[in-house]
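DM from R.C. (forwarded with permission)

"hey, sorry to bug you on a friday — could you get me a structure for this? deadline for the figure draft is monday and I only need the backbone to look sensible"
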Amino acid sequence: MTQLPDGYTLRRPTLDDALAITQTYKANDVQFESNHELNVAELIQFMKEVDLNNNAWVVLDEQGQVIAYEEVIPNPEKARFDLEGVVHPDHLGKGIGSFLVQTVEARIAEIMSGMELNDLSPYIIVNVNGKDPFAKELFAAYDREKSDAVMEIQMTEAPREPSWADGITVRSFVPGQDDKTVWHVVNTSFQSIPGDHDMPFDSWRNFNVNREGFDPSLWFLAMDGDTIAGVCLCPHDKNYGWVRQIGVLPEYRGREIGLSLLSYALGEWWRRGEKRVGLAVQSDNVPAISLYKKLGFHIDSVYDTYRKSLVSLRAKI
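My reply, with the result:
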């Protein structure tokens, strides 16, 4: 196994490291021309979903400053392991990334040894900036599964008013009433798109709804009577306007409900004084990209998803 270079140390992270980790991400974004713009509050929310005592690590330089972070989030129901990490650009090319990936893969082997896998085929998923050559080299042994485009719009005037299909109205999300239905709409809407999108309900609710400062007025529901036909979910804790998910049930497609929901969301961001709005979409989802371009969005950056099968590792356990 690769060792850390001299002068670097490894330890477990705490939430007190969130600022330093965020600064590491920002430095990496600047180096590789990304507008990810993770903020401290958002990172803390992400870190709360991680078992920091067992499934996360930070690397410190000689001055004791955090210069790298790595985590794994296991999903036992699907035998899926999501990796996330970053190395400060000033410390790239020294083997730190390789050390962290080997460390996290060893931890995954430990987790798998205590899992009931049954007929599941375990695998790792990781997303990397498409402009980062170090990350591409680091995961060269993985299979490139897909890529996601980050699209943005910089509004100079109020967006056009949405044109709702007959019988469709819009309202905001009501916590405690709409949770499970919205979760179902999101999962159903994305079933036809390659990749893993569904999240267990409790995990989805904890990550999206049961979080500090959650703003239900930024979750927009397209209603056909009492039926939620589509949703547009915007988080509150980005540094700029963001659309996290747009989903329309299959039976309601072809009526421009998604376009109307996005127009409505842009109008709300405009009313709140936010002119810059971003979203992410799979790069090969041509209909969605065309829809977003109609409203003035452009592709800003691309993130690649890599996958590694752990079937051979399972056989050794």
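R.C.: lifesaver. The CA atoms of residues 194 and 211 lie 28 Å apart.
me: no worries. The domain at 157-274 is CATH 3.40.630.30 (Aminopeptidase).
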